[in-house]
């Protein structure tokens, strides 16, 4: 009886401590606010109130089995089923607590790597005036993906998809000294793009989180060095989140952002929209839009010939297994709606492109071969129609400029020009110097892109510094990372039939502890019921002990452990949910611990299960943590 009295008294004291803490928290809140969280869920009942443990019963994780009909990608399905996101409207999502934890971890890693190379963080506005965009020409050149709006005064604004204009104008107004260069400024924030068909959850959506860094340089040498440093820094970010073997830097087209040099960081995955050509021998990688390869076999040697009409010319090419494509272009300045059809036709140019029959024209490569003022209107097959042809191009894999054929067709002489405008294909020989490998096509998800912008924005917006008795226009670089897209891409690349396989550094919580030993639901006072209740309480106490020891021995785990304390959920359901959410480590404290003092540890990355003691567990987790530690 004395023992029972002392036990009850001890429990009463601890409960009073929890109540007192709850009261202090309540009084510390602003007026009108209330403490809704149950203190017993956050504070362990067998420890002081200031000893905080994360309990599963206190976490809001709304898992679900029901999915919308339009969910087609794995990452979208897992994000919804695991309780990471909920859709607000088409292409716009609410981030729930689990996803926010992963985003914060990724943001911390990016911050550390950007600041390690001299980056300074700031925050630019999301709502941008159209004035700067009009100065650089992007207000008219960017298509309907730019979300435009007007204020009550009728002034034009847009929701920022990028911030080149805003950052350039900011630095230009500050009259910086050349001694401050190179200058690296970056931010992490929301961006907007009016996707015509938002799909695949966070991979292609209308609102997303992005890291964008902008660099400013006096010389090309500075810009080249920064470009190389940022490229390596990105690989370090991917190493620290466990994706170094899944991401490649591929040569790419700069699109409307501009610049002469750019690389995309592509996470290889079957769900990807991009096609990447990879050499099986060297490190060459390029988006198919710009990839260059040599076909295994060249076509027939072309000879100078005379043809009575275009139909005869087309038949001749067909006999050589060549195809002929018609390209219609016009000058970009031809934008007036008052121009007649006859005047517009006079301004258009028709060109013929001769390719191997198995190849297609790459519009981006073709655009680089045309005069800067021309834009492509239409590309189609040519079968000998009586059109007014202005010029003839021949794919360089067929011929070269030194022996490009001359054709006389219907009395007109055409001196052909060798160009490279065809798409690369799997099996093409790699063109890198000294490489004998061949190209293979893979699908990828673009998770980042870096640009050497040169003076596109600085010249348009007057960004200069005074150096050596003259004003010098600065050179710029732009370096983007899709933060939310990286999270979704991880789920595409790291999953199995049970759920997500989080890389250790990005998991919302790294370890979950599950006690096995349920309290009896039978209210009778028989011995079996008492034994079950005692066993359940014993396992729960052991969970608390392991939790505290892990936190004390490995401080980096603080706040990254969860105890699944729910009494109304079966052990099997707890384990199934843990696999879906993707905790990297699941520790079962049950029969093996009672009998042998061993922990049943499940490693999510390889589905391996083992019985080990606590010291061995410590060593393995410390090794895991060290794999993703920063190198600076």
Could you characterize what this model shows?
The chain is α+β, with helices and mostly antiparallel strands and 632 residues long. 31% of the residues lie in helices and 27% in strands. The chain contains 17 helices and 33 strands. The strands form 9 sheets. Strands 3, 7, 8, 9, 10, 11, 12, 23 and 26 form a 9-stranded mixed beta sheet that branches. A 5-stranded mixed beta sheet has the order 17-15-16-18-21, sandwiched between helices. A 5-stranded mixed beta sheet has the order 30-29-31-32-33, with helices on both faces. Strand 5 and strand 6 (156-159) form a beta hairpin. The radius of gyration is 32 Å and the shape is elongated. Mean pLDDT is 84; it is low at 22-50 and 334-345.
Provide tags for this entry.
632 residues, alpha+beta, 5-stranded mixed β-sheet, 17 helices, 33 strands
Quick recap of the structure?
Helix content is 31%, strand content 27%. It has 632 residues and is an alpha+beta fold. About 6% of the residues have low confidence.
Largest beta-sheet details: 9 strands, mixed
Give me the number of helical elements.
Answer: 17
N→C terminal distance: 61 Å
Structural class label: alpha+beta
Which spans of ≥5 residues are poorly predicted at pLDDT below 50?
22-50, 334-345
What best-fitting shape do the alpha-carbon axes yield? Answer: elongated
């Amino acid at each position: 009886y004395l023992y029972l009295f002392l036990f009850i008294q001890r429990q009463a004291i601890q409960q009073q401590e929890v109540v007192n803490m709850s009261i202090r928290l309540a009084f510390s809140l602003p007026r009108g606010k209330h403490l809704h969280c149950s203190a017993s869920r956050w504070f362990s009942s067998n420890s002081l109130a200031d000893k905080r443990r994360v309990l599963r019963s206190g976490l809001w994780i709304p898992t679900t089995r029901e999915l919308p009909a339009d969910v087609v990608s794995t990452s979208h399905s897992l994000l919804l089923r695991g309780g990471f996101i909920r859709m607000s409207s088409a292409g716009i999502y609410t981030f729930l607590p689990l996803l926010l934890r992963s985003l914060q971890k990724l943001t911390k890693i990016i911050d550390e790597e950007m600041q390690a190379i001299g980056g300074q963080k700031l925050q630019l506005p999301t709502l941008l005036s159209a004035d700067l965009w009009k100065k650089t020409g992007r207000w008219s050149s960017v298509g309907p993906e730019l979300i435009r709006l007007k204020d009550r005064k009728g002034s034009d604004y847009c929701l920022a998809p990028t911030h080149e204009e805003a950052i350039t104008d900011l630095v230009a107004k500050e009259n910086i000294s050349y001694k401050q260069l190179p200058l690296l400024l970056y931010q992490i924030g929301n961006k907007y793009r009016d996707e015509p068909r938002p799909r695949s959850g966070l991979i292609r959506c209308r609102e997303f989180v992005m890291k964008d860094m902008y660099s400013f340089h006096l010389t090309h040498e500075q810009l080249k060095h920064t470009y190389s440093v940022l490229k390596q820094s990105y690989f370090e970010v991917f190493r620290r989140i466990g994706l170094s073997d899944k991401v490649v830097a591929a040569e790419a087209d700069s699109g409307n952002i501009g610049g002469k040099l750019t690389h995309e960081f592509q996470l290889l995955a079957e769900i990807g929209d991009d096609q990447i050509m990879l050499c099986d021998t060297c490190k060459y990688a390029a988006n198919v839009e710009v990839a260059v390869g040599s076909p295994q076999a060249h076509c027939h040697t072309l000879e100078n010939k005379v043809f009575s009409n275009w139909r005869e010319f087309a038949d001749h090419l067909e006999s050589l297994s060549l195809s002929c494509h018609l390209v219609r272009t016009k000058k970009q300045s031809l934008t007036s709606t008052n121009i007649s059809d006859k005047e517009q036709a006079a301004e258009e140019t028709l060109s013929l492109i001769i390719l191997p029959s198995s190849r297609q024209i790459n519009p981006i490569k073709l655009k680089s071969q045309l005069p800067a003022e021309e834009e492509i209107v239409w590309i189609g097959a040519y079968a000998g129609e009586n059109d007014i042809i202005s010029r003839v191009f021949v794919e360089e894999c067929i011929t070269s400029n030194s022996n490009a054929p001359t054709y006389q067709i219907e009395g007109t002489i055409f001196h052909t020009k060798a160009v490279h405008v065809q798409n690369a294909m799997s099996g093409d020989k790699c063109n890198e110097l000294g490489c004998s490998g061949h190209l293979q096509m893979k699908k990828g998800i673009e998770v980042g892109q870096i640009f050497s912008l040169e003076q596109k924005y600085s010249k348009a917006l007057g960004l200069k510094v005074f150096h050596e008795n003259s004003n010098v226009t600065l050179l710029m670089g732009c370096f983007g990372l899709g933060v939310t897209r990286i999270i979704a891409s991880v789920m595409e690349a790291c999953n199995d039939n049970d759920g997500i396989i989080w890389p250790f550094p990005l998991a919302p919580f790294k370890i979950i502890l599950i006690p096995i030993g349920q309290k009896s639901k039978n209210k009778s006072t028989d011995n079996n019921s008492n034994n079950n209740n005692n066993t359940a309480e014993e396992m729960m106490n052991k969970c608390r002990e392991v939790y505290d020891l892990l936190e004390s021995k490995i401080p980096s785990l603080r706040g990254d452990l969860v105890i699944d304390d729910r009494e109304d959920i079966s052990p099997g359901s707890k384990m199934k949910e843990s696999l879906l959410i993707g905790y990297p480590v699941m520790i079962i404290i049950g029969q093996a611990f009672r009998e042998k003092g061993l922990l049943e540890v499940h490693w999510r990355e390889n589905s391996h299960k083992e019985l080990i003691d606590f010291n061995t567990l410590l060593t393995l987790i410390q090794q895991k943590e060290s794999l993703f530690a920063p190198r600076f």
